[in-house]
Write a structure and sequence with these properties.
168 residues; Ribose 5-phosphate Isomerase B, Chain: A; 2 domains; 5-stranded parallel β-sheet; 5 strands; globular
Length: 168
């Protein structure tokens, strides 16, 4: 379902046990579309802690080793909360195509999180397709307001990043 992609774009993907099956299906969809996919776990449906896998994906995206990330847990919320703690990551919980489209257009989201217990497989594929194929409109002359807003997010990140054991 995801539009075919040419090139060597790397996508990092991860899930907890609740999202394990959906993650596998989304991974296959991405590979079929021509993306290189790095599976950061979990590797079974045994109970595990979502922060471990959200952090792995977020760190890879933050370091620029993957262009985007995809995370799946029961609701998408927990994964998003963790991923958004990593500087440079803009994770968006998207359980519909509209949110996926505008998270990319206006916010340049680089990590998609979804809830396997909230949406079905077909909806997840449509959301993934929308997220992967929508470009950030801030790169256009008319998108200056979006760039300005992202700059404000980066400033907030810098303000609260711990560099010497303190905040601010």
């Amino acid at each position: 379902m995801v539009q075919e992609h040419k090139g060597s774009v790397i996508i990092a993907i991860g899930s907890d046990h609740a999202g394990y099956n959906m993650k596998g299906n989304l991974k296959s969809t991405l590979v079929e579309a021509g993306y290189s996919v790095e599976d950061m776990g979990t590797y079974s449906d045994e109970s595990c802690d979502y922060p471990d896998f959200a952090l792995k994906v977020a760190e890879v995206v933050s370091r620029g080793e993957a262009e985007k990330g995809v995370l799946v847990c029961a609701t998408g919320v927990g994964m998003s909360m963790v991923a958004n703690r990593v500087p440079g990551v803009r994770a968006a919980v998207c359980n519909d195509e509209y949110t996926a489209r505008f998270s990319r257009l206006h916010n340049d989201a680089n990590v998609l999180t979804m809830g396997a217990r909230v949406i079905g497989e077909e909806q997840a594929r449509r959301i993934l397709d929308t997220f992967m194929t929508t470009e950030f409109e801030g790169r256009e002359e008319t998108g200056a307001r979006h760039v300005r807003r992202l700059d404000k997010i980066r400033e907030i990140e810098r303000k609260y990043m711990k560099t010497d054991g303190s905040t601010g």
